[in-house]
Structures are given as C-alpha cells and as structure tokens.
Amino acid sequence: MTRAIITVVGKDTVGIIAKVCTYLANNQINILDISQTIVQEYFNMMMIVDLTKSVKAFDVLSDELVEIGKDTGVQVKCQLEDIFDKMHRI
Question: Using an 8 Å Cβ cutoff, are 74 and 44 in contact?
C-alpha cells in the first residue's frame, strides 16, 4: 500500500473538505483516516490516504492539490508517508 499524508491549513470557508474529498474520490484515492479542527476561524485538517489505485502520478496529484488549496484560499500539502515520517523524526 502506498500511503500519503495530506494537510490543509488556512482560514475556514465553506466547501474546503468537499473540494479536497471530491478530488480524492475522482482520482481513486481512499481516505484511511481524517482529523479536522477549527480553532476560532482557522481550519486544520490532516488525512492519511491510500494512493494504491490512484489514476495519476504522485507529483501530479500533489501539484493539483496545491492548486485546489490556492483556489480555496488554504494551503494544501501532500507528502508520501515515509518521507513525512523521516522529516518528523528529527
């Protein structure tokens, strides 16, 4: 299984979760775990997703998620799980 971590951070607006989840579903990406909070007007979401059946390459997915974030006014980052784990060990 190829897993990735997706983080979404920014000012809360209507439709953030819907836009990201619709994109993932359209690209055969399964959400394994999801956590989201809103602190005052700030939105924060972290997802663990399965890329095994993805119809696009990781780099393309990552770039398109960044664009969705820009269109929505939030920052979206996507990292492969092993890289995420190594970065957060330090």
Answer: no
Reading the block at residue 16, the tokens are 């953030």
Return d(Cα 69, Cα 62) in angstroms, integer.
11
Q: How far apart are CA 6 and CA 36, in angstroms?
A: 12
Residues 80/58, Cβ–Cβ less than 8 Å: yes
Instruction: Express each pLDDT in 51-67 by its tens digit.
Output: 999 989 999 999 999 99
Burial of 21 (0-12, 13-18, 19+ CB in 10 A): middle
Q: Which residue stretches of the chain are H helix?
A: 16-26, 58-72, 81-87
Give me the phi and psi of 9, to 5 degrees please. -140, 140
Reference 6, options 28, 32, 27; nearest CA is 32
| Count of residues making up the chain | 90
Average pLDDT, the chain: 92
Cα 61 to chain centroid, rounded: 10
